[in-house]
Amino acid sequence: MANLEFRVGVIGAGVMGEALIAGLISFGVKPSLISISEKRKERSDELVDRYRVKAATLTDVCKSDVLLLVTKPQDMQALLAEIKELLGAKTLIVTFAAGKKISFISEHTGGSNPVIRVMPNTPTLVGKGAAAISLGDGVTNEQRDYVKGFLAATGKVIEVAEDLQDAVTATSGSGPAYFFAFVESMIAGAKKLGLSDADATTLTIQTIVGSAALLAESGDSPTTLREKVTSPKGTTAAALASFENSHLSQIVADAMSAAHKRSQELA
């Protein structure tokens, strides 16, 4: 059972930061135990009003039991330099920056604080996220359960060895953008066939949403579902043959490899 009395600090209360705050509260954390540090006062005021969390100084936030760093990878080093001397002795650091290794966080904070690395994705914003966590040295079972618990309130969460985090980034971290690009292409294709923009958008989105629900709820594999909808020499078979002739599997693999490489470069 996770300790819901941990004090939580959040640095970087943008869109993802807000999603995590909502997840914490859904998990059962009292808003009074959540403090945020956000440079934009209007944004800070908005979140305080919406969630009844506390706005606090950077010093106070860094003394929390659990500190969430929800910042861009390129901003991480400067942030760590700023908070290094402010951290509580036992504060758990949870980093959400793509590509930034646990060793990087430890190196720039003195190495005494436990660190958990997380790769979330944007469907976290609607409670349908996918996140993978990796544990640094010194992380307790209680701390691990706490982080896995509140992330589970925002979607699915798995635990992986850190050397797989770049693969996670290429799969679920960047994955929503692949999906959105495919939806854009389907809408454009439908319009070329004569459908209006509104009708093309409605049909495409509902097809995608329905297919995702079927995949999640039917218990069938993607292969089985594809086969069920594909009649020999039918319309679907013709479309899938076009995908195969265009080497769709290789296109996807190449795209994921490019994301994987870029994640490694951000380390």
UniProtKB/TrEMBL annotation:
Q: Which InterPro entries match?
A: 6-PGluconate_DH-like_C_sf, NAD(P)-bd_dom_sf, P5C_Rdtase_cat_N, P5CR-like_CS, P5CR_dimer, Pyrroline-COOH_reductase
One molecular function GO term is: pyrroline-5-carboxylate reductase activity
Question: Which controlled-vocabulary keywords does the entry list?
Answer: Membrane, NADP, Oxidoreductase, Transmembrane, Transmembrane helix
Q: Where is the Pyrroline-5-carboxylate reductase catalytic N-terminal domain?
A: 7-94
Domain Pyrroline-5-carboxylate reductase dimerisation span(s) in chain numbering: 162-266
Q: Which SUPFAM superfamilies match?
A: 6-phosphogluconate dehydrogenase C-terminal domain-like, NAD(P)-binding Rossmann-fold domains
Similarity comment text for this entry:
Belongs to the pyrroline-5-carboxylate reductase family.
Q: What is this protein called?
A: Unannotated protein
Q: Which organism is it from?
A: freshwater metagenome
